[in-house]
Amino acid sequence: QVQLAESGGGSVQTGGSLRLSCTGSGYTYRAHCMAWFRQAPGKQREAVAGVYTGTANTFYADSVKGRFTVSHDIANNTLYLQMNTLKPEDAAVYYCAANIHPATACARVEYQHWGQGTQVTVSA
Predict the structure, then answer these.
(1) Cα–Cα separations (whole angstroms), residue 109 to 21, 39, 62, 98
(2) Residue 11 has pLDDT above 90, yes or no
(3) DSSP-based three-state secondary structure for 63
(4) What is the pLDDT of residue 91?
(5) Which of 53, 66, 92, 124 is a Cys-bridge partner for 38, taking CB atoms 3.0 to 4.6 Å apart?
(6) Rounded to whole angstroms, what are the CA distances from 103 to 4, 10, 22, 30, 32?
(7) Distance, CA of 67 to CA of 111 (rounded, Å)
(8) Is residue 109 within 8 Å of 31, Cβ to Cβ?
(9) 52 pairs with which residues across the strands?
(10) pLDDT for 103
(11) CA-to-CA distance for 121 and 36, rounded, in angstroms?
């Protein structure tokens, strides 16, 4: 029933920017955790950034701090990831995830609901 619709992936040159969007539907909005994960070929899936929507408390992977910004629009239940100064190592399929159960520690919780993924390519 829960659906996460992702968009915004694409191909950019090193140093470029992209903004990913993820709209949640199929559930009544209450404060919850949403996050972005990414997986590159041959690599483990890793958490990139996330937010607890009730307080706007965020977390980031060290590798993206200062370059990426995660935010959430309650009115549309849409999660965003503004990605600046992109590097080749940022290339991956990016997945939106949500945990709609009671939780606030969004860097710690398990995510049960996943989007289909959106491809980000960064060329030299």
Answers:
(1) 21, 19, 18, 10
(2) yes
(3) helix
(4) 98
(5) 92
(6) 18, 32, 19, 11, 6
(7) 24
(8) no
(9) 33, 57
(10) 83
(11) 16
Q: Is the pLDDT of residue 70 over 90?
A: yes
Looking at this protein, which amino acid is placed at residue 20?
L
Residue that has been written with the tokens 């990139």 in this structure = 48
> Which residue type occupies 11?
S
pLDDT value at residue 102:
79
Q: Would you state the structure tokens that stand for residue 105, as one six-digit string? A: 């520690």
In whole angstroms, what is the distance from residue 84 CA to residue 1 CA? 33
Contact 4, 115 (CB under 8 A): yes
Give the pair of three-digit tokens for residue 55: 């307080």
Structure tokens at 77: 């239940």
Type of residue found at 46:
E
